[in-house]
Specification:
mainly alpha; 4 helices; about 0% strand
């Protein structure tokens, strides 16, 4: 894969000398004016964002465990289709 314009991913590709590794993308929204995105992603989380960060972290861990359990192809399909998640964002244990 490519770095998708992300300097951190570009650095990983450069240091691994290989673009082939799994990536888990976490969304941050799209409501940024010119020059605001870089400042936002490089800043500390706001206190009111911390519960969201914890939820994203928990979902990322659940997704990784699912990938280990069922393999790349099925996990990718399940994760991207959102069928792993209950309405409240909690991981479905029996999938």
């Amino acid at each position: 894969g490519s770095n998708g314009g992300h300097n951190g991913v570009a650095s990983i590709i450069e240091n691994l000398n290989n673009p082939d590794f799994l990536r888990l993308r976490l969304g941050i929204g799209k409501n940024f004016g010119a020059g605001e995105l870089v400042d936002y992603v490089l800043s500390d989380f706001l206190n009111e964002e911390l519960p969201i960060v914890e939820t994203m972290k928990d979902k990322a861990i659940d997704a990784l465990l699912h990938l280990i359990k069922v393999g790349f192809a099925r996990a990718t399909s399940d994760i991207n289709s959102e069928k792993l998640w209950e309405n409240n964002g909690i991981f479905k244990q029996n999938i």
